[in-house]
Design goal:
Blueprint: H1 6-43, H2 53-99, H3 104-116, H4 119-129, H5 134-157, H6 161-169, H7 174-211, H8 217-226, H9 230-258, H10 260-263
Helix pairs in contact: 2-5, 2-7, 2-8, 2-9, 3-5, 4-5, 4-7, 5-7, 6-7, 7-8, 7-9, 8-9
Length: 267
């Protein structure tokens, strides 16, 4: 009987667990679609408020790429711009807290204030002041700012004390500690926040489109609601969900490439 190192056995168990989790996820989605189909046909068959997935899929096919692509492209552009600026501001602010600890309380208070501002209330103000795509981008940035700020601050503070002492022993200062130790230790926490920020940015952009705009998934959804095209409304909602999930998954792929030691458990 062969012998295998514990690390190999653990990796095999991790792969088996991941495969089992994926199968469970697929099974859950299939079960949800089946239940949705039954509820749409049996419970809401007369009023059509919850159309079955077959009807929604048929409407999506009839609408086609020409309908969805311009709206998806607009929303993705707004969400991506807001995601970049909001996360960049959060990272810069977190590094500022590290460099000047006395700024922590006022700057964190600023972050909490931005987080607590109701997007629905501040959105119309942005529409009046800026116009165009800027209000949607600002709302997307607001939706991601605080989450990334907290994740970055927690990550920077999680640096190993022995590693920091080693850099200090070799004559390194705060900058050397930040570049050589703290930034690396902050990556797992930062990427966890960035994953959450992806769907949040999409939501912020869509809410901004609700408040004003000429194209985008939010605008298309309002138009379909007002024209009582229920199946199309559900189809747009599914596409918006897929865009948010894609944003989450894309950041996850980047995380695996940048922090392979996390995904492999440090082996």
């Amino acid at each position: 009987m062969g012998w295998a190192p514990a690390s190999v056995t653990r990796r095999g168990a991790d792969r088996a667990g991941a495969a089992s989790g994926r199968l469970a996820g697929v099974g859950g989605v299939v079960a949800l679609v089946v239940v949705w189909q039954l509820v749409g046909m049996v419970v809401f068959g007369r009023n059509g408020l919850v159309p079955p997935p077959t009807e929604v899929a048929g409407q999506m096919v009839r609408d086609g790429w020409a309908f969805y692509w311009p709206n998806v492209a607009t929303t993705v552009s707004e969400a991506a711009t807001g995601w970049l600026w909001g996360n960049a501001a959060a990272v810069v602010l977190a590094l500022s807290l590290l460099a000047v600890p006395r700024l922590e309380k006022p700057l964190m208070s600023l972050g909490v204030t931005v987080y607590c501002l109701p997007i629905v209330a501040i959105g119309p103000v942005f529409e009046v002041v800026f116009g165009g795509a800027v209000p949607k981008e600002l709302l997307a940035a607001m939706a991601v700012f605080f989450t990334t700020l907290v994740g970055m601050v927690v990550g920077l503070r999680s640096a190993d004390a022995a590693s920091l002492d080693l850099v200090r022993a070799f004559g390194g200062g705060r900058v050397d500690q930040a570049v050589k130790v703290r930034l690396w230790y902050s990556l797992p926490s930062l990427f966890a926040a960035l994953r959450i920020a992806g769907p949040a940015a999409v939501l912020g952009a869509i809410i901004g489109e609700y408040l004003g705009g000429s194209s985008g998934l939010g605008v298309a959804m309002i138009d379909s609601e007002q024209s009582l095209q229920i199946a199309r409304t559900w189809g747009i909602a599914l596409v918006a969900t897929a865009v948010a999930a894609a944003a989450y998954g894309l950041v996850g792929l980047v995380e695996r490439a940048v922090t392979p030691w996390v995904s492999t458990g440090g082996n």
